[in-house]
Input
Amino acid sequence: MSKRNAQRPGYKHTKVGWIPEEWECVRLKSLDPFLTSGSRGWAKYYSQSGSLFLRIANLVRGNVCLDLSDTRFVQVPEDCAEAIRTLVRSGDILISITADLGIIGFISDDIAERTAYINQHICLLRVRSESCSRKFVAYSLAGPVSQKRFSRIVDQGAKAGLNLEAIRSFPVPFPPLVEQERIAEVLLAWDRAIALTDRLIAAKQRLKKGLMQQLLTGRLRFPEFGKPARRRDELPIGWKRVRLQEVAQVNPSQAKPGHNDCCVTFLAMADISEQGRMASKQERPYLSVSNGFTSFLDGDILVAKITPCFENGKGAHLEGLTNGIGFGSTEFHVIRAHNADARFLFLHTQSRPFRGRGEANMTGSAGQKRVPAEFVRDYPIPLPEREEQRRIAATMSACDREIHLLAQKRARLQKQKKGLMQKLLTGEVRVKVRSGQRRRQP
Output
């Protein structure tokens, strides 16, 4: 495993690399495992309530805590043979065996209180040996070195997947039981912190969506600007309904820098996030991108026009472009505000009504559908006075900053946990146990 353990006193070389001398290297089949994949044909049992139905979407790579925010439900007949085999229990380990291979999930006691089943894309590993910590086995399989090993045992048949027999023969490092339990406790604390941050992000995003819809339609207003609209189909006093093209240019003519030998920002579709941000940006010489690409300026709004990027919310209000100018994918619509606050208009392009109506107005063949410029130009906008526009935009920007800070916190936690996981699972860093316990062998 860790190269830093090589030749260190008190360490030995095994099939899983260098580990402490008192650790063992065992194969999963030695832990008396029950191993099975899920069943097909669950669609006929889908319902609005009932038992949990766990899918690959519920597994998060690097975090064995299961995400049940997008869990379907099933109503399974009591005599369903497939259900008996794929019913999960407390302590079970789930492994994705198709699509995104090798993601690990652990069934904790709180999940096991509900009846839950898995489909054919997940393998259920039930360690029946009482001489090991099931949580530790889950973390060992989710660790960086084990994940590399998973990629090497993929069955490259007609449809790539993980072979159950190969999983059964999978080698894992095996510390004394008390050390396994302590390692699992430490890593579980990190997973809980990450899961809590995920829940906070989801709650903030829900709050933002609801608040944005209310503010953009005038059904909620800041008191200093007047009373809100009383009915869904009316506007507050002082507001007017305009078409987007009345307050902005849609796909304006190409912007040019002051001289040809400067650098500009270049944005591919991958550089724009589904959260309405520039996730990254490139810098290129102006002359290398001046032909064949979409041009834009600082303050412009980008809206992805092609499916599924449009439906997924790809777009951004541009700030900080190199020399104030940029070029990018031809699959962007560009909106340049002139009689409205650009950030306020950007909020409308991120709203559910804009995305929903745009999807309904797409043209083209399947897989190549696009939102036409005419839809964007004619889109109706409820427009308050400029100062209220700015206040609404500032409020939503504050929500975005909170969500972004939480996302950064999550990324830091995940990075720190990954580094700690590597060291704990190789024995490079040893956990403290009570005196006399380290000699207790599984």
In short: The longest strand covers residues 122-127. The first helix runs from residue 81 to 85. The domain at 24-174 is CATH 3.90.220.20 (Adenine-n6-DNA-methyltransferase TaqI; Chain A, domain 2). The CA atoms of residues 64 and 264 lie 43 Å apart.
